[in-house]
Write a structure and sequence with these properties.
alpha+beta; OB fold (Dihydrolipoamide Acetyltransferase, E2P); BirA Bifunctional Protein, domain 2; 2 domains; eight-stranded mixed beta sheet; five-stranded mixed beta barrel; 13 helices; 16 strands; about 25% strand; elongated; binds 4-amino-1,4-dioxobutan-2-aminium adenosine-5'-monophosphate; binds magnesium ion
């Protein structure tokens, strides 16, 4: 066997090599034969291509090589790139050489036929190789990159909060506890409290990391481990944070449209729906939302929590995200600042994605008064000593400040039009899933 001398190319770059000989390294997606021709569908993680091998070009040896390979066997091929408008991706490879790398040990568990979700989730480590899952992962990556570029472009500093924490940020009912050399530590529910320290040090920061909630709820929106992006800005108020969220959402959507059109096509997501995501996002107060919900037949009174079904109703009002603001303070976390004119209201907001997707962002202005914050901590049944470091921010140069948290998986589900968050992260963690 001759060592191939043609340059190794990734399929996403193939258009630059029309007419040239290249080397592809990948896996067998599918194959078929027809008389004196072998067709190999090869995937390399960045694309899929049909390779055509005729007996004259690859000989009996090439035919035997193709015939030895089953679905997901790995192989390298050398061939000439040929524009083919009818081919998916626009190109074909006219084979010159087929080099098997590893023949799969038995039948690949995931065949092109339909499988149930439970089976696919059990085989998540292999399911990730399918066209659709690859497209979702590439869109997720584009969203992550867009978020970083958005904040970096505005002079924010990335600020990494710890994952082991000593206290609750978002209430004690969803804490994961772990032993920390004899002390109790909790897996971080949110980087916010540390992000506030960062904002006081650096002016404007964003955190980007995994967060954990022992969510007992089995819904299509909840994971026990998810990634959150939390900007925090000194001298910003609630409306400033809401505008930042609005600008960020538009930036992300625009980037996905610019760079991931192929992947949107693979997952059959209509880009026209995303093109409508433009400023301004309609704003609705909690008071008004309650009226709308009552009219729509929901059994809810002022003071009631806006749950999944209610969010769906509100988010269906518009074809762009809706900003819901001024929640009853009793529903919200201890750190939320209250409205000066009506202390029953918290200066908080949620961004609800359209198409019934619901909350993707939660945020608001923070309580910046030392004494008020101490009483809130007590009212919430939390331990003041656990928050001494956090209270120090209100002792030394306290300023108004605000921020929010964007859930990455819910954002991916929204932009990809997926009904459930489980396909938005490589290995979803849910109440009943820790494997693979
Ligand atoms: O609304 P949440 O709980 O807000 C906070 O954690 C604040 N500390 C954020 C801040 O102001 N810095 O969570 C923020 C977002 C939600 O809007 C949602 O997108 C996502 O995080 N999220 C979840 N995503 C998946 N699974 C879960 N269990 C989630 N819980 C929250
Ligand atoms: Mg929330």
């Amino acid at each position: 066997m001759v060592t191939p001398t043609a340059p190794h190319v990734y399929l996403e770059d193939i258009a630059k090599y029309d007419g040239q000989d290249i080397l592809l390294k990948g896996w067998l997606y599918n194959k078929r034969s027809s008389g004196k021709i072998r067709f190999v569908m090869l995937r390399d993680g960045t694309g899929l291509i049909q390779c055509v091998g005729s007996i004259n070009d690859i000989g009996e040896e090439g035919f035997a090589a193709v015939d030895s390979l089953s679905q997901e066997s790995s192989l390298m091929v050398v061939g000439t790139v040929k524009a083919e408008p009818r081919a998916p991706g626009g190109f074909e490879l006219i084979l010159k050489q087929v080099i098997p790398v590893h023949v799969a040990m038995g039948e690949f568990p995931i065949s092109p036929k339909e499988h149930g979700t439970a089976f696919l989730m059990d085989n998540r480590h292999l399911w990730l190789r399918s066209k659709r899952q690859v497209a979702i992962m590439r869109i997720r990556h584009a969203i992550v990159k867009a978020i970083r570029d958005f904040f970096d472009g505005r002079g924010f500093t990335l600020f990494d909060p710890p994952i082991f924490t000593n206290a609750a940020c978002e209430g004690t009912s969803t804490l994961f506890e772990t032993d920390y050399f004899g002390e109790t530590a909790y897996l971080s529910q949110s980087g916010q409290l540390y992000g506030e320290c960062g904002a006081m040090a650096l002016g404007k920061i964003y955190t980007f990391g995994p967060t954990f909630r022992a969510e007992k709820s089995k819904t299509r929106r909840h994971l026990t481990e998810f990634w959150m992006i939390e900007p925090e800005v000194a001298y910003m108020d609630m409306w400033g944070a809401a505008e930042l969220a609005e600008d960020m959402c538009c930036f992300i959507v625009q980037r996905v449209l610019e760079t991931r059109m192929e992947e949107l096509k693979v997952i059959e997501r209509d880009p026209a729906i995303l093109e409508k995501i433009q400023k301004p996002f309609p704003r609705i107060s909690y008071d008004d939302a309650i009226k709308v919900l009552k009219n729509a037949g929901h059994d809810i009174e002022w003071g009631g929590d806006i749950g999944g079904d209610e969010e769906t109703t509100i988010s269906n009002l518009n074809d762009r995200p809706t900003i819901l603001y001024h929640f009853p303070a009793d529903l919200k976390a201890f750190y939320m600042k209250r409205d000066a004119g009506n202390p029953k209201l918290a200066l908080g907001f949620d961004v609800l994605a359209p198409e019934g997707k619901g909350e993707v962002i939660g945020g608001g202005q923070r309580e910046d008064d030392y004494d008020v914050l101490v009483s809130r901590i007590k009212e919430h049944g939390l331990n003041v000593e656990d928050f001494e470091w956090f209270l120090d921010l209100r002792k030394y140069g306290s300023v108004p400040h605000a921020g929010y948290g964007l859930g990455l998986e819910r954002t991916v589900a929204w932009l990809c039009g997926l009904p459930h968050v489980r396909e938005t992260i490589p290995f979803p963690r849910m109440i009943s899933r820790l494997k693979p």
